[in-house]
Specification:
By secondary structure, this protein is mostly helical. The chain has 20 helices and 2 strands.
Length: 492
């Protein structure tokens, strides 16, 4: 019996579980679409196979890509400024915050869980970074000794929670962050302050995951309570109506507002695009030589060529000077773009090429079957919540960079709603077991494009932004539900 490897990981109860491939060294049957692998031997066979899967309900990111194209066409016709280089760079900067938080939420959604606290947690992590820097590395001075001791005790509890589930990477990050914070080791350095924010994110996620996975409290209840709790913590840290300035810190300010020099932009283009093409071509040739199912080489080359052309056009456009003042040129892609791509590639690798990723899909597809296969469900769940809050911290840092400050309501408002919407619109299922890191990127740009395009149309009321975003999210959720129904019907 043959297995169609083109289906989403986690689509079956055994997806992502250890197989004989763990012994032979061959890739597991559960692979993400980023490394799509089929039995088609020609481009025509692949297209027919792909269309059959779409008709069967496996639409993946197709609706989001079509939505991105449709919105782009509508806004480009409605305003000649939409496709301007300045606006395209602004779109990338706007999308970054949502994409980072959504990328972490993908891991939680893959389990069929939810994290409603990711937005406010991002604000708390950013506040730790900002307070450390503006007080010359002395967070104790900024918070006061009692509050500072509580923070250290929380980090210690989080490390214990992560250690209880044998998440040693998380334990190491939290302990190193706590020690540096307590003894003021290098805390005046901006990179160290960024690390402290990420360590706090991992700690927050570890505690959240412990309450969900070990104590057994539903994730909706836990994260709803923490959504409110982290808002209170942020007010305790900053004060009502106050803000922490961050624009004076060059590294932090450059994350969302700085630009990669044009030459280095082309270097990054060659590294990312060339690396992707080399990886996919090598993988296909190797699997064909071993007489294993593989993508048609023609498809791999065509896809690589399209990516190369689109990437080259994007880099060339962003490298143009977009400053109205010729004496102060602004050129190059925003730093947030390569950071976004690098994190997408990293988390795609984790989900598709690491055993942990296969377990994540398996838990979301069929938790009971995964448990009977010997997988520690609590450990996987806690790890996913830790990753979610870690990426929320990255989103909080990007927001602080974008705004030039950390207000007392940082991460509140619609931050979480937009991040969840981005993941779902991009193709991640709310029911678990289906999704990819790229979904956050695609969906994040869809979410950012709506206010960006509407902002160029002053005749439309402000309410249009919320209404259109709501309709897009409802449409994405409907597509997800209908595709699952069709896939279930086809399975029967």
């Amino acid at each position: 019996m043959t297995t169609d490897q083109n289906s989403d990981p986690g689509a079956s109860a055994t997806a992502g579980l250890p197989t004989s491939s763990s012994v032979t060294g061959e890739p597991d049957l559960a692979e993400a679409d980023f490394a799509r692998d089929t039995g088609a031997t020609s481009l025509g066979d692949y297209v027919r196979d792909w269309w059959a899967r779409v008709r069967g309900g496996e639409v993946g990111a197709l609706p989001a890509i079509l939505g991105l194209a449709v919105l782009g066409l509508i806004f480009s016709f409605a305003s000649d400024r939409f496709l301007s280089v300045n606006n395209l760079a602004n779109l990338v900067q706007q999308a970054g915050i949502t994409v980072f938080i959504a990328m972490g939420l993908v891991f939680v959604l893959l389990l069929g869980e939810i994290d409603l606290s990711a937005g406010t947690a991002s604000g708390v992590c950013a506040a730790v970074m900002g307070l450390t820097l503006v007080n010359n590395g002395d967070l104790e001075k900024a918070l006061g000794r009692p509050t500072f001791i509580v923070v250290l005790l929380f980090l210690a509890a989080a490390a214990v929670a992560a250690g209880f589930s044998r998440l040693w990477y998380a334990v190491g990050i939290i302990v190193i962050g706590g020690v540096m914070m307590a003894f003021k080791i290098g805390t005046t350095n901006q990179i160290v302050a960024i690390f402290l924010a990420v360590a706090c994110g991992v700690a927050i996620g570890s505690v959240t995951g412990f309450l969900v996975a070990r104590i057994g409290i539903p994730s909706f209840v836990v994260t709803l309570a923490l959504f409110l709790g982290w808002q209170g913590v942020l007010l305790q840290f900053i004060g009502n109506g106050a803000a922490i300035p961050t624009s004076q810190f060059n590294i932090i300010n450059a994350i969302s507002n700085g630009n990669v020099p044009p030459l280095w932009g082309w270097v990054l283009y060659i590294v990312f695009v060339g690396g992707y093409i080399a990886f996919t071509v090598t993988r296909t040739l190797r699997r064909q030589a071993q007489r294993l199912s593989a993508e048609p080489l023609t498809l791999v080359l065509v896809r690589g060529a399209v990516l190369a052309v689109v990437g080259a056009i994007a880099v060339a456009l962003l490298n143009q000077n977009r400053s109205p003042n010729p004496n102060f040129p602004i050129e190059g892609m925003p730093y947030v773009l390569p950071l976004m791509i690098a994190l997408m590639v990293f988390w795609t690798f984790v989900l598709s090429r690491v055993r942990f990723g296969r377990y994540v899909y398996a838990v979301g597809g069929n938790a009971e079957a995964t448990r009977r296969a010997g997988v520690d469900l609590s450990r996987i769940r806690l790890a996913c919540f830790a990753i979610c809050s870690c990426m929320a911290a990255v989103g909080g840092i990007a927001q602080a960079s974008r705004l030039g400050s950390i207000p007392s309501d940082a991460g509140g408002g619609n931050t979480l709603l937009y991040a969840v919407a981005a993941a779902v619109i991009g193709g991640t299922s709310l029911f678990g077991g289906r999704g990819h890191a790229r979904d956050a990127v695609i969906g994040g740009f869809v979410i950012a494009m709506i206010p960006n395009g509407l902002g160029l149309l002053p005749s439309l009321p402000a309410s249009a932004n919320f209404i259109i975003t709501a309709l897009v999210l409802l449409l994405a959720a409907s597509v997800d539900a209908l595709s699952r129904r069709r896939a279930a019907a086809a399975g029967r």
